[in-house]
Amino acid sequence: MTTTDTTTDLEDFRLRVRDFLARNAKRVDAAGDEESQDGETVDYLTGARVWQNSLFDAGFSGLSWPKEYGGQSLTMHHQRVFNEEANGYVMPSSPFMVTLGMCAPTLLQYGTEEQRRTHVPKMLRGDEIWCQLFSEPGAGSDVAGLTTKAVRDGDEWVINGQKVWTSGAHFADYGLIVTRTNPEVPKHKGITMFIVDMKSPGVTVRPLRQMSGGSGFNEVFFDDVRVPAANLVGEIDNGWMAAIGTLMNERVSIGAGGGGLGRGTGTAQFDRLAELATKVGRIDDGAARTELASIYVEERLLAILSERMRAGLKAGKAPGPEGSIAKLSGSELGRRVADMAMSLLAESGQAWTDGEDDSLHWAQTLLGSPGGAIAGGTPEIMRNILGERSLGLPKEPQVDRDIPFKDTRTN
Fold first, then answer.
1. Would you call 250 a catalytic residue per the annotation?
2. Which listed CATH number (3.40.50.300, 1.10.620.20, 3.20.20.10, 1.20.140.10) goes with 243-389?
3. Of 12, 34, 88, 266, which has the maximum CB count within 10 A?
4. Which of the following is catalytic: 250, 291, 299, 322?
5. SS3 call for 252
C-alpha cells in the first residue's frame, strides 16, 4: 500500500461508500433486474445519467483516474473496496461502458491535452455518452480493411461511409471513428481516427433489432459529415495504433469490467444462479452444485484478473494479452451461465406467463450471449492473438498486408 492507502484510510473510504449507496442506490432484490434490456429506454438512460452525475459529484467516479481529468487519483485498493460495497446494488452503468471502458482511455493515451480536458471529465460525470465506430459491413474481424473515407478540406475533414454493430450509437453524443485517409499505402498504414459529433448533419443512425428483442446495436451512415481538424486523435495515417489501443481497452472492459465502473466482487452470476437453483428445488442436486462451484471459481478468477489489469493500467501499463484472456473467458462463461439457467428452468425457460421475471431474464441472456461473444473480437480472434503474442506461434497468412490498400481485392 502507498502512504495514502492505509488501513484506516480504506476503512474511512468504505464507510463513505456504504453511506452513499444506502442513500442513493437501490438493492437488486428491491428493484428487479440490474439492467434494462440493452439499457435503451428513455427512462433508463435518464436514470443512468442521474446516477453517474451523483457518483461523480460524490467523488466515486474514476477512482483511480488522474485528478486533472476529473478522476480521484486514488488506488486500486479503493476501487476494490467500492466494488465490494456496491455488490448487491443496482448499478445502471451499461450506457457508459463504451464511454469509460474504451473511448476515455483512448483519449487519455492518444488525445490532445485540450481533448482530454474538454471531454474526459464530462465522460466521468455522465454528461457525455460515446460510441466506438469501427466495424463495417466489409470489415468486421478485419477492421484494417475499412473503407469509410475521410478527405481533408481546409480546416475540416469530410467523412463518407458506413459503420455497423455500433453499440449505443442511438443515444451517443460523440463517437471515435476510424477512417481511410490514404489508400496508396498498406491497409494498416492509411487509417486515421477522429472524434465525431453524433448530432452532426449527415449522420444517420438505424438501430438493428436482435433476436433477444433488444436493439442495442446500430448501423450508422456518414454522408459528407464535416469534422474539425482539431478532432484528430493521434496522427494522420497512423490511427491504427490508436485503434489497437481502443480494441485492447474494449477487451478489458468486456472481459473484466473495465472503465472504472467495477464488476462487484465477481460472483454476480453465481449468486443469481444459486438463487434460481434454490427456487426450482435443485440447490442440493450434485450435478447442479458442481456446475455452480465451477462458475463461482471462474467468476472469482475473472475478478482477480480484473484487479490485476486495473493495477497495470494505473501504473501506466498498456493493456496486454490479459485483455484477450479476460474477453475470451468472460464470453465463454456468459454462455455457460445462460446454458445452466436454461437447464434449471427446463420448460419454463421456453414459455412463460407475464410476471415470470427469471424466465424472461435468462431467455434474453441466452439469446444475447452470441452477440456478447462476438463483440470486441470473436473467440477465434482472441485465440489467434493469444497464440501469436503469448505463445509465439506464427501469424495467420495475410496476403494483402503489405500491398497498397487500393490494390486489394476488396477494393
1. yes
2. 1.20.140.10
3. 266
4. 250
5. helix
